[in-house]
Amino acid sequence: MNRTMLTPKTEPVGVDGFTLRERSWKRQADRHVQALNVLLAERGAPIRFGFPAPVAVPFDGPGPDEAYAGALSLGDELTEVLALSTALLQAARTGTEDLVDERTLLLRRAALTDRLALATPHDTTAQSRAIREAHILMTFDVVHHTGRGEFAADSIQADGAGGPRAYVRQEYTEWHVPIPPGEGI
Question: pLDDT digit string (tens) for 168-183?
């Protein structure tokens, strides 16, 4: 008896549009999604997942022109970021470091790399650095609950394409605009 081996190209497709192998993968994915939804429900999360995964909601934050209006020039901002970094390193050595100063450094560094990436749109290294610095800021904000903008760092809006850099712009706008007296922490 001569049996032909099934490959992804020769495997028959069922009436549902899936091959046997794809149906198996979908069942496994459905079990994982169901377990995730149970966990989210237990934690009181307002979102639920389906298969395929939900498409991220567009981030409705400030654009680059609005976020960086009135910001220092790139050269001056770089000088400020280096000075903040030096001061934070000295504070760490003396044991007087402060979360506010650390977040300010991360925010300004993320904004600086975002602005550099905007200035060089075809430089993939600059684009990658801007996203990496944005993720560093977002991680800090999730861990320390320090975000000030409308969208949280762990929101689905900040998880979509362009979301990390939009999050930086949102937070830079919030940081750059002073808090009115009596409304701060």
Answer: 999 999 998 765 666 6
- CA dihedral for 141, 145, 151, 156, sign (positive or negative): positive
Phi, psi (degrees; rounded to nearest 5) at 49: -105, 155
Say whether 19 sits in a helix, a strand or coil.
Answer: strand
The 3-class SS string of 107-170 reads HHHHHHHHHHHHHCCCCHHHHHHHHHHHHHHHHHHHHHCCCCCCCCCCCCHHHCCCHHHHHHHH
pLDDT in tens, 111-138: 999 999 999 989 999 999 999 999 999 9
List 19's β-bridge partners, or say none.
Answer: 13
For the chain, 185 residues long, the average pLDDT of each consecutive 10-residue run is 61 68 73 78 72 58 89 93 93 89 95 95 91 92 89 77 86 80 59
> What CA–CA distance (Å, rounded) separates 83 from 123?
26
Question: Cα(62)–Cα(171) distance, rounded to whole angstroms?
Answer: 9
CB 169 within 8 A of CB 176: no
- Crossing angle of the two packed helices 99-119 and 74-94, in degrees rounded to 10: 150
Contacts of 103 (CB under 8 A, 6+ apart): 137, 140, 141, 144, 146
Buried-state track 146-175, b at ≥16 Cβ within 10 A, e below 16: bbebebebebebbbbeebbbbbbbbbbbbb
